[in-house]
Amino acid sequence: MTRSVVDEAPVTEAPAPVAGSDPRLRWVLLSAGLVAALALPWFVYPPVAMDIVAMALFAIALDILLGYTGLLSFGHAAFWGSSAYVTGLIATHYGVPFPLAVVGGAVFAMILALPVGYPSVRRSGIYFAMVTLAFAQMVYFIGYQWSDLTGGENGLQGVPRTFFGIELVETESFYFYYAALPILLFGMWAAWRIVHSPFGRVLVSIRDNTQRARALGYEVDKYKIIAFVLSAGLTGLAGGVFAINHGFVALTELHWSTSGEVVLMTVLGGIGTLWGGILGAFLAVMLADYLASSGFDGIDLVTGSVFVLVVLLFRRGIWGTVRHQWLAWQQRRTSSRRTSAGADPAERGP
Amino acid sequence: MNAVLQYAVQGLAAGSFYALAALGLAIIFGVLGVVNFAHGAFYMLGAVTAAVLLDTLALPLWWSLLVVPVLMFGFGVVVERLLVQWLLRLDPLYNFLLTFGLTLVLVELVKQRYGVSGLPYKLPGALSGRVDLAGVVLPRYQLFVFLFSVAICVLVWVVMTRTRVGMIVRASTEKPELARALGINVGRWVTPVFGFGVALAGLAGVLAAPFRAITADMGNNFAIILFAVVVIGGLGSIVGAVVAGFLVGLVEAFGQAYAPTFAQILIFVLMALIILVRPAGLFGRKEATA
């Protein structure tokens, strides 16, 4: 291997989303996912199950940027955490049903994403990661300093769980799961719609060739900002549900380690796959839960090692690898069929 | 007036840590194209190593200033050979993520070994106390830190401009394509440059040891401010990294003096303004804008 300075490389290794992939397969996956989501709290302690689904939406929202727009945001904790705080504050002070509080949090995250996104999208690649990280740190310090509102290091405590007049107390996390699940599923559906819409196509074209997208007349920065704001909004939905689920908002939710954690989930699951975020979140939350319950206090040691290993050896991620194998298998099958039908295999190339 | 000068020296001392570490970050980025997230962790390791050397071998600060950077250089070489080199040909984001993972591991290891409370570091007698300069009383150590790091920066500058090695590194940093077109083997310098950048972060850590609380977490926020520093200075620029380092130190010190609530936030506001007005940074070239 010759060692040289990195040249202009594509932003991610992820392939473009496969247009017109088998619709039957899609329905099978979708039903399986839905059944899994509905069955989860029967097998996993319900508050943990809720964390998994919330984190899954968080990872999917990040993937809209990372996988489909080619922007690595290393500051998504700002939207996750600020929505958690705003949701918590609305629920505490106004006693509205929690879905409304969550929507309030998500709207706040989108509003916050405008001033953060506007300067950030002027830089791309590694600069974008650094700038978003720095802005998120700024939001963290605001949360830290403004302790009258956020509770500072003690966090925001005693967030109620009101669901249209019913108080879902701690023991009823099982029912809370089903009450909050539609919000998160809506978020995932929205992410899917965004990615597969004409707007999403433009995002992919920006990822693959920014110059060309610009030459074709698309206002690249505007598309990036919209994608950033949408991603922040979905992140906000997830963060809000997370806050209500715990009845408590910690300063950690704004911390850069949270931004890193969601990047890990997305990369582990597979960049540019949406589904991968769900797997990544499931594994990460279950692992953290297992380590915490077994009394191991060096979670970062495991998280960091997994990060290093995944980046070194497993960059496609779980879903990305599965999809890659599946596509390779399908291609082999169709090409062998063509060959037997008498088509010239040389025509297709390697 | 007196107070203003004191804040200025305090800011320049704090800026020294940023300047030295950002210099290392900028050189690594220039030659390897890697934004090293672990730079804050290396800074922390420098401080921790100095504290441990003082505690176990009673090695004084003077010796640590020499020994620790050498150790960190070796550590940097190991990290580059073992981890970073495999991702050099891919998108720089992968090495950013790799070094992020490495940061988590290093910080947690130090936390497990030395706990979360700070390690002590006593100043040598010659550097403690205050010095009276024409009626202005300044802490002696802060002056020392500032002068020492300026000396290092000048030294690096001389090496960069007056020696063949320096010119190669500078050419690789500022115009990598051209350097290669002229037949310079940029790849040969990758490992030593990474080690050198890590050594600078370690040196900043040693200097910070008597000045800051030595904890496993001390590098975390430091790393993020470093990113703001290099964005302000212009990521491709060596001079920019140093100037922005001192600038950010001053902003921090005056912010803490006059608006303590906003001290940390000010740095990021400055960064946002720079991005809006000069996206390539103060000393960055236009091409550096992606």
From TrEMBL, chain A:
Pfam families: BPD_transp_2 (PF02653)
Keywords for this protein: Cell membrane, Membrane, Transmembrane, Transmembrane helix
Topological relation to the membrane, as annotated: Multi-pass membrane protein
Record field: transmembrane: 27-45, 52-74, 94-114, 126-146, 174-192, 225-244, 264-287, 299-319
InterPro entries: ABC_transp_permease (IPR001851), LivM-like (IPR043428)
Cellular localization per UniProt: Cell membrane
Name of the featured protein: Branched-chain amino acid ABC transporter permease
UniProtKB/TrEMBL annotation, chain B:
Subcellular location: Cell membrane
Recorded topology in the membrane: Multi-pass membrane protein
Keywords for the protein's UniProt record, in alphabetical order: Amino-acid transport, Cell membrane, Membrane, Transmembrane, Transmembrane helix, Transport
Name assigned to this protein: Branched-chain amino acid ABC transporter permease
Protein's UniProt keywords contain Mitochondrion: no
Pfam family, one: BPD_transp_2
TM annotation in the entry: 12-35, 66-87, 93-110, 143-160, 189-211, 223-251, 257-277
UniProt cross-references to InterPro entries, sorted A to Z: ABC_transp_permease, BCAA_transport_permease
Lineage top rank: taxon: Bacteria
Family: Belongs to the binding-protein-dependent transport system permease family. LivHM subfamily.
